[in-house]
Amino acid sequence: MTKSKHKTDKEVENQSPIETNMPVEENLTANEESENAAAEASEAAEGADAISAESEVLSEKIAEWKDRYLRLTAEYDNYRKRTLKEREELVRTAGEGLIKDVLVVVDDFERALLALEKLSDTAGFDGINLIYDKLMSMLKSKGVTVINRVGEPFDTDFEEAITKFPAPTPEQKGTVIDVVQKGYLLNGKVIRYAKVVVGE
User: Domain span at residue 184?
Assistant: First the structure.
C-alpha cells in the first residue's frame, strides 16, 4: 500500500503543470471575465454620460432655433400687419394732396357766394350755389367732412387758435367763438385744421 501511495505522490509530482493548475486557470478566466464585464459597464456608463451631454446640447440648440423661429414669425406677422395698415391708410388718403388743393377753390366759392348775397342782382347766384353744392357732395362722397366745432371747447387736435377774444358769457371761456377758415377731415384724419377765434 505504501508503494502505491508513494507512486501516486510521484505521479502527482510528475504531472504537467497544466494538469495540476486547472482550477487556477478557471479562476483566472472568471476574473478576466468579471474585469471585462466591469470595463464594459464603465464604457457603457461613459457612453451614456456622453449621450446625455450630447442630448442636452441638442436640446439647447432646439430651444434656440425654436426661439429664433418664433421671433422671426412674430416679426413677419408685425411687418405684414404694418404694411397692410399702411396700404389701407394710403388708399384712404390717396387723394389728400388733390383734395387740399380743391379746398382752396372751395374757400373761393364760399367767398364768392357771400359776395353775391350782398348784390342786388342775384341772377347768377342760384347757378353758382348749385355748382357749389355739387362740389361739396362730391367731396363728401370721397370722405371729406367739415370740422364744425363752434361753441365747443377748443381742441388742438382739430383747430388752430388765430386769436383770443373776450368771451361774451362766462360759459364761452375756452370755447370756439368763431371760425375764420374751415377745417376738413378726410376719412377721420385732419387734412386741414380749422382756424378759429377762442373766447377768454
Answer: 93-199
